[in-house]
Design brief:
The complex is a heterodimer of chains A (about 220) and B (about 280). By secondary structure, chain A is mostly helical. Chain A has ten helices and four strands, in the order H-H-H-H-H-H-E-E-H-H-H-H-E-E. By secondary structure, chain B is of the alpha+beta class. Chain B has one domain. A nine-stranded antiparallel sheet of chain B has the order 2-3-4-5-1-6-9-8-7. In chain B, about 35% of the residues are buried. Classes of the chains: A mainly alpha (about 220), B alpha+beta (about 280). The interface between A and B is large, with 29 and 47 residues.
Chain lengths: ~220, ~280
């Protein structure tokens, strides 16, 4: 119930005008409507804040990708063997380096011995090196190799290396920049069906003799 | 002067709604089920029915990637059998309102006293922040069928100054207007009056608090008197006697303004005529 709405809303001003009259004694409808209004306002606020949050996140990821691209370009100027040694010094095995570079282990060995790589391969190695550099210097991840090798989620064996091998540097950067972020969100973007894909049909249990055993989970037979 | 001549009950009352609101520091748990039952017993004479109103409280963390949580809670609404009078008690305020006001001393004041005593007994709030007593009149006069209408002779001329043709030129035709004035009635209480010609209803005729035989929508003169006291420096204790004392002080100015605003002609030709414009 309102006794002032009949006049319509006034012409807006660029400066806030102070309320000259205190809010009136409320009726029951005011008291209950206020709850409804607050609820609706809150819903709008939730939607708005989520939208703002999403926009900020998009901007942040966009910025990280640009930063990564710039740094990768810089690093392509360095010698390929130097980049490979750097990755090896960080703790990556040659097998892992070959995998994220999209080539075989013998190919990596040839590069180390000075044989030339294609422009695409050189670019890829420099992108991995740039990612490691950002993770260490920008986001203070000391042991980058261990970080990239660790599974993101107990329910799925996906690692940052898998993301990189699949060309999802954006997701790897997101994880690096927001340590503590929910890895399920990243996994959802990487593979929307990861939950079904990695659901195990077996479980470990303690047998009556006290020793661990393996059995099929309920519903998997 | 006898209150009966200044305020309803009139045979044809203009009063659409009378409201008392008491705000107090939020009670963390509201009033529990047991307290509700005690309140119901205490108010059995006045408000024998109890209903629950459900309210959803939404909690959110801005920017957090999680959905807002919704907590549902209920609070009681005590009503008369004809649903024209209702009381709602929430964590931070209680509101008692009626569309069938039968006089301050005769009916509304004793009801307030009963409500306040019951709450003080079963679940006393920590203090009192604000007390407001509000009368909303919809004055309808037969023959005034168009907005804004000619209210001269019915409403005191001083309140019609904004539309007085003696000094408002014909090029400025009042369509809708509303006056608003605040008077200090004591050092810590105020009377706010909103007045002016309106159309439709000021009080929803289909609201949860039922209006008996509501008039058809049409032009009316609004007289909305809101007399309130507000705690400024200290928050006094929630005590029935002191609250009733304040209520009495708040009632006086509303009665006074009503007496000033309406003319004898309006009183005699409209309010005192049984049936009148009211169905």
């Amino acid at each position: 119930m309102s006794t002032t709405e009949a006049l319509g809303s006034p012409t807006g001003t660029s400066v806030g005008l102070g309320e000259t009259v205190e809010s009136p004694t409320r009726t029951i409808a005011d008291l209950v409507d206020q709850a409804g209004l607050l609820k609706n306002r809150t819903r709008i606020l939730v939607a708005d804040s989520n939208e703002v949050h999403q926009s900020t996140e998009d901007l942040h990821i966009d910025f990280l990708s640009r930063l990564h691209r710039t740094l990768s370009l810089e690093r392509t100027k360095e010698s390929l063997s130097g980049l490979l040694d750097e990755l090896s010094d960080l703790g990556f095995s040659w097998r892992e380096i070959a995998r994220v570079s999209g080539v075989s282990v013998p190919a990596v060995r040839k590069w180390r011995n000075g044989e030339p790589a294609t422009g695409e391969n050189r670019k890829r190695v420099s992108m991995v090196a740039a990612l490691c550099e950002l993770a260490r210097n920008q986001y203070l991840i000391d042991d980058v190799a261990s970080w990239m090798e660790a599974p993101l989620h107990p329910g799925a064996p996906v690692t940052v290396l898998d993301l990189v091998a699949d060309d999802r540097f954006d997701l790897a950067l997101q994880l690096a920049s927001e340590q503590g972020t929910d890895p399920e969100r990243v996994l959802d973007q990487f593979d929307p069906e990861w939950r079904e894909r990695y659901t195990s049909s077996v479980e470990v249990f303690t047998a009556p003799d006290g020793l661990p055993g393996v059995r099929l989970t309920e519903g998997s037979t | 002067m006898n209150d009966r001549h200044q305020r309803p009950p009139f045979p044809n009352p203009p009063l659409a709604l009378t409201v008392l609101e008491i705000r107090y520091p939020e009670m963390s748990e509201g009033i529990g089920r047991r307290a509700q039952q005690h309140m119901r017993d205490a108010l059995q004479t006045w408000l024998p029915l109890i209903e629950n109103i459900t309210e959803d409280q939404v909690e959110l963390a801005i920017g957090a990637p999680m959905p807002a949580s919704v907590q549902r809670r209920t609070f009681p609404r005590f009503v008369t059998r004809d649903r024209t009078t209702a009381l709602v008690v929430k964590e931070g305020a209680l509101v008692l309102e009626t569309t069938t006001y039968e006089g301050w001393e005769e009916n509304f004041r004793p009801m307030i006293a009963e409500v306040v005593r019951a709450l003080e007994e079963v679940s006393p709030p920590d203090g009192v922040l604000r007390i407001g007593l509000r009368y909303i009149d919809e004055i309808r006069v037969p023959g005034i069928a168009e907005v804004p209408g000619d209210w001269r002779g019915y409403i005191d001329a001083h309140l019609l100054a904004a539309a007085n043709p003696d000094f408002i030129p014909a090029s400025l035709q009042p369509a809708v207007w509303q006056g608003l004035v605040q008077y200090k009635t004591t050092s810590d209480s105020t009377l706010t009056v909103r007045y002016g010609p309106q159309n439709g209803h000021a009080v929803n005729p289909k609201g949860a608090t039922r209006r008996k035989n509501p008039p058809d929508a049409g032009p009316f003169f609004l007289l909305d008197s809101d007399s309130f006291w507000q705690a400024e420096d200290e928050v006094p204790e929630f005590g029935a006697d002191s609250i009733m004392e304040r209520c009495d002080k708040l009632h006086g100015p509303t009665r006074e303004f009503f007496r000033i605003a309406v003319t004898d002609k309006l009183r005699n030709e409209v309010f005192e005529v049984d049936g009148g414009t009211q169905k």
